[in-house]
Amino acid sequence: MTLHEDEVPAGPATVRALLAAQCPQWADLPLAAAGAGTDNTMYRLGTDLLVRLPRTAGTARSLRTEQEWLPRLAPLLPHRIPAPVHLGTPAAGYPLPWSVHRWLDGAEVGPDSVTDWAALGTDLATFVRDLHATDLMGATRAGDLSWYRGGDLRSCDDWITGCLRDCRAVVGADLDLDTLTRYWRAGLAQPEPAGPYGWLHGDLRPTNLLARNGKLYAVIDFGCLSVGLPDAEHAPVWDLPAAARHAYRDALDVPDPTWIRARAWAVAVAASGIAYYRGTFPAFVAECRARLGRILGDPF
């Protein structure tokens, strides 16, 4: 499934060729598809490894960031995160860097894997608090560690207003776009955030949360790792049931202005996802629509 105009395909044969040339010690291990997101295609390698192949040159830039910072962050966080073990180099059949991580054995957070949603929300809040409080260790909001979701809403206004307008052609009357637009504008109307910069995961959607024994076990996919303001970090909690969302906010004691900006970010990311992927990734569009529905049903 191709999602981007500049996408580089990466099927099993490509992975086998990369392994044979650069990691012959793993070349004969079993290989199985392990999912594909908007930025990466993944394959499980043997029982203990995961191969991640960026879809585009733009998303490939994050690999060196992960290689540099994840080993330094891991000991400081309360839940498991990916452990990179190899950074692959571009090759004739795949002209982008690629990576191998240790396999984390858990189930995507969902109704079949979580036994207590309020506890899940509290656990996620603990992870976020610890990540945001972790020393920057010399990192700054620059280069690959500077991402739009760690900045101010105002810089995205023209883009997101256009996405909300485009969404009308996709969702029609199924969602109240007028109210969602008001939520976006309410975020813009808040005072500029004054908090210090910190580490941000950037995409704490349920697909990037793993559960074991009914509880949060690991947080994966740090392709959006950056340094910035925390408002957008809270946005994906509208992908979770209300019990998790409310427990998360209570545990972090998020003030109203921050929550209003977080809600605006939640609207923005979902609307832009629908606008961009409407003809290529129906499952992701459905996920974005579900988020907007939850915002309308439980905005605060």
Describe the 3D structure:
InterPro entries: AGP_Transferase, Aminoglycoside_PTrfase, Kinase-like_dom_sf. This is Phosphotransferase. Residues 33-255 form the Aminoglycoside phosphotransferase domain. By secondary structure, this protein is an alpha+beta fold. The protein has two domains: 12-102, Phosphorylase Kinase, domain 1, CATH 3.30.200.20; 107-297, Aminoglycoside 3'-phosphotransferase, Chain: A, domain 2. 40% of the residues lie in helices and 15% in strands. It has nine helices and ten strands. The protein has helices at residues 12-22, 57-60, 62-73, 117-133, 157-171, 177-189, 242-252, 256-277, 282-297; strands at residues 31-36, 40-45, 49-54, 84-88, 98-102, 107-108, 198-200, 209-212, 215-219, 226-228. The strands form three sheets. Strands 1-2-3-5-4 form a five-stranded antiparallel β-sheet, with helices on both faces. The chain has a three-stranded antiparallel β-sheet with strand order 6-8-9, with helices on one face. Helix 4 packs parallel to helix 7, helix 5 packs antiparallel against helix 6 (177-189) and helix 6 packs across helix 8.
Task: Write the topology of this structure.
Layout: H1 12-22, E1 31-36, E2 40-45, E3 49-54, H2 57-60, H3 62-73, E4 84-88, E5 98-102, E6 107-108, H4 117-133, H5 157-171, H6 177-189, E7 198-200, E8 209-212, E9 215-219, E10 226-228, H7 242-252, H8 256-277, H9 282-297
Antiparallel strand pairs: 1-2, 2-3, 3-5, 4-5, 6-8, 7-10, 8-9
Helix pairs in contact: 4-7, 5-6, 5-8, 6-8, 8-9
